[in-house]
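Practice problem 4.
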């Protein structure tokens, strides 16, 4: 390559280096779509992100409306509605194979036989709408049902009466357009509240607890009478329920359900009823798991469940039934918490309602459906009366003979119409051509055997029925209440409440006794501490024993650097070398902490009194600003606010301008603040040490004080002041010089110390 060519190449490289580098464009669907639209000259381009947005919304709407959430009108999901519609098509009074019902339902439900079979099994286990035969599983034990070809089903009389009414049903085409299916059933009973419902959709979920059949009808009657409604859940498994926070079944409420446990012997318990949502298998597994984790102690479990629940819990000789009972509620599925979330489809949109709202709307819907049925029945009776009257006149007045002379069909119709005109006023509607055609279809045999007396009785019967129906329509509320009472009388037998509600003697709802897990857990471990190496845990058997604990406890650690930390207890964990305090931490503790420290930046001495408050596990909380010269001079713990530390602050004896070398301070002068506050200033002078002040007569000595012996005190001036300092408001108490004798007394350990305070004095800081 020549020199000229080399020069040109170098110039090009230099220009490329000087030219700013454009950033690599990021992928943006909207920008891409706009670019393609400009390139193709299309202003109506559909962007990819818009397409995905539409598809997701369509899918979410489909899951909510067509799969997971029940409808408020009939309380059914689409698959349940299609199963019942299919069973009505096959209804002949006899049992049908479930496999046949599933096959017929597939004409309406496009999601396969498995989903239909599972939904039908769940419906059958509710024992309300489907009469079952064969092995349909067991809700108590969790056993599954037999294959669909082995079990049979038919609609119950209750379902036939309250679910189906074709004349007031709105119909729609099935997914393939070949059949008709109901949009919703005209249900005259809140099936949703009786059976309960649970489902998860896109972005929302529903959980409606089951309620008692009889109590639902009573609540509907109260709703029609405009009385207050009080409806509480009732579970097929029984148990005991705390409904103080039920909140009318609205979102945000909560129900606690406990198993019914009986004391058989001193060391033997029997579980006879289990909480809703559990099975005997899951309950036993939870008890065994709690035993493995040393939360409870059991010797043996026997499951004798058949038709009724019977689980025998054998306890070791060291554990009584009274002690084991709260532990079972705290650590096993013997107590569960349920959160109702009544989400239903109403007006083609998901709505969050309360149980009381559902009862009221169901009562009003029942009254409206009954009104529609009565109006349809009234119209049918009027049509029957109309034709019976026409037939009587047609035959008795021999109008049929007028047609003999007519030669054309139009003439025949005209002759009959002319013969009926004198009697038009007795009818409630006009006589149509269809009426005349029906008259002309009457056979001669019927005309020849016509009985006028029997015809009058028939017409009179129609008139009585019409009058009765019109009376019902005039008093629809009373009619609806009578209908609901008849349902209760007809189908209420054997549907008494199974779940006991926790109430007081006067009938008021009362909550369960509060069980604190940390208090009922078996405290079979001991917390040990190795101060030298900085390790703690319940496996360090050879080190210093701190206190009894359990594997559920937390440990709070205060370090010499003023950092606090809460940790989950373990067999061995690092807590820092030479910690100030290591103890079991309970979140409901009311312990009060007294502390004196030196701020490394300013050199001032501060005092603070605080409680722990809320903490996050494994997070470090500094009690003061971190600095290399910051030191803790005093740290004490008290069980309550009534007890406080009384200290003496010894200033550096070499301070020449300060005459009073001892400051007395009582933490009772301070208010309890947060752990992160700076505190009150004690002094800005150099401090030698801080010790506990002596107590008069030893009566007010702090309990549990563990105090390290002080080093021999340096000589101080023998000046004293008899005046006692006033409690400070924002500033510390004034310094008070003490006699040397009293100072020596303060350094000796107090013989009457108790057990709720641990004190650390730091010297040479």
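Answer key:
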């Amino acid at each position: 390559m020549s020199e000229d060519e080399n020069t040109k190449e170098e110039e090009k490289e230099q220009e490329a280096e000087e030219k700013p580098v454009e950033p690599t464009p990021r992928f943006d669907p909207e920008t891409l779509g706009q670019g393609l639209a400009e390139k193709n000259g299309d202003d109506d381009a559909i962007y990819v992100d818009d397409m995905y947005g539409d598809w997701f919304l369509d899918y979410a709407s489909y899951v909510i409306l067509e799969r997971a959430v029940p409808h408020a009108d009939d309380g059914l999901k689409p698959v349940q509605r299609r199963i019942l519609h299919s069973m009505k098509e096959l209804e002949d009074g006899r049992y049908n194979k479930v496999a046949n019902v599933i096959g017929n339902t597939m004409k309406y439900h496009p999601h396969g036989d498995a989903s239909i079979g599972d939904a039908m099994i769940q419906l059958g286990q509710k024992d309300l709408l489907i009469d079952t035969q064969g092995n349909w599983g067991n809700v108590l034990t969790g056993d599954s049902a037999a294959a669909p070809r082995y079990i049979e089903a038919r609609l119950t009389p209750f379902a036939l009466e309250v679910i189906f009414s074709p004349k007031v049903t709105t119909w729609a085409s099935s997914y393939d357009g070949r059949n008709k299916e109901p949009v919703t059933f005209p249900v005259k009973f809140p099936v949703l509240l009786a059976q309960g419902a649970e489902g998860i959709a896109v972005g929302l979920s529903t959980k409606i607890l089951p309620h008692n059949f009889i109590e639902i009808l009573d609540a509907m009657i109260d709703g029609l009478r405009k009385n207050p409604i009080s409806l509480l859940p009732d579970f097929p498994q029984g148990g005991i329920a705390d409904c103080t926070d039920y909140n009318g079944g609205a979102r945000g409420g909560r129900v606690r359900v406990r198993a019914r446990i009986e004391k058989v012997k001193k060391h033997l318990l029997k579980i006879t009823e289990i909480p809703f949502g559990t099975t005997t298998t899951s309950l036993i597994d939870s008890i065994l798991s709690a035993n493995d984790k040393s939360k409870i102690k059991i010797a043996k479990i026997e499951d004798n469940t058949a038709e009724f629940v019977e689980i025998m819990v054998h306890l070791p000789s060291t554990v009584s039934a009274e002690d084991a009972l709260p532990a079972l509620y705290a650590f096993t599925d013997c107590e569960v918490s349920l959160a109702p979330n009544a989400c239903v489809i109403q007006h083609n949109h998901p709505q969050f309602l309360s149980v009381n709202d559902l009862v009221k709307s169901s009562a009003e819907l029942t009254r409206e459906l009954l009104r529609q049925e009565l109006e349809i029945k009234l119209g049918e009776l009027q049509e029957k009366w109309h034709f019976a009257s026409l037939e009587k006149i047609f035959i008795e007045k021999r109008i049929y003979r007028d047609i003999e002379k007519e030669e054309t069909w139009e003439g025949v119709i005209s002759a009959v119409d002319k013969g009926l005109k004198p009697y038009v006023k007795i009818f409630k509607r006009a006589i149509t051509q269809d009426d005349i055609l029906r008259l002309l279809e009457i056979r001669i045999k019927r005309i020849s055997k016509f009985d006028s007396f029997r015809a009058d009785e028939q017409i009179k019967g129609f008139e009585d029925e019409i009058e009765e129906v019109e009376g019902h329509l005039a008093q629809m509320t009373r009619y609806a209440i009578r209908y609901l009472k008849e349902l209760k009388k007809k189908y209420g037998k054997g549907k008494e409440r199974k779940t006991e509600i926790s109430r007081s003697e006067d009938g008021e709802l009362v909550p369960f006794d509060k069980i604190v897990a940390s208090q009922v857990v078996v405290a079979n471990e001991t917390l040990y501490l190795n101060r030298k190496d900085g390790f703690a845990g319940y496996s360090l058997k050879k080190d210093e024993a701190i206190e009894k604990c359990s594997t559920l406890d937390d440990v709070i650690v205060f370090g010499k650097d003023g950092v606090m930390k809460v940790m989950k207890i373990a067999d061995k964990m690092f807590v820092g070398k030479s910690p100030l305090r290591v103890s079991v931490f309970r979140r409901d503790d009311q312990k009060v902490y007294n502390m004196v420290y030196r701020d490394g930046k300013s050199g001032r001495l501060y005092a603070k009194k605080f409680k722990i408050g809320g903490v996050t596990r494994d997070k470090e909380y500094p009690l003061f600003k971190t600095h290399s010269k910051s030191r803790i001079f005093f740290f004490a713990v008290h069980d309550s606010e009534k007890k406080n530390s009384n200290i003496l602050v010894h200033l550096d004896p070499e301070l020449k301008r300060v005459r009073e070398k001892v400051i007395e301070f009582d933490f009772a002068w301070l208010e309890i603040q947060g752990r992160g506050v700076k505190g009150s200033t004690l002094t800005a002078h150099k401090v030698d040490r801080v010790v506990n002040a002596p107590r008069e007569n030893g009566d007010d000595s702090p309990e549990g004080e563990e105090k390290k012996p002080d080093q021999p005190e340096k000589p101080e001036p023998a000046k004293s002041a008899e005046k006692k300092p006033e409690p400070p408001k924002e500033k510390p108490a004034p310094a008070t010089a003490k006699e040397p004798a009293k100072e020596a007394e303060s350094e000796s350990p107090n013989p009457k110390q108790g057990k709720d305070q641990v004190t650390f004095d730091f010297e040479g800081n």
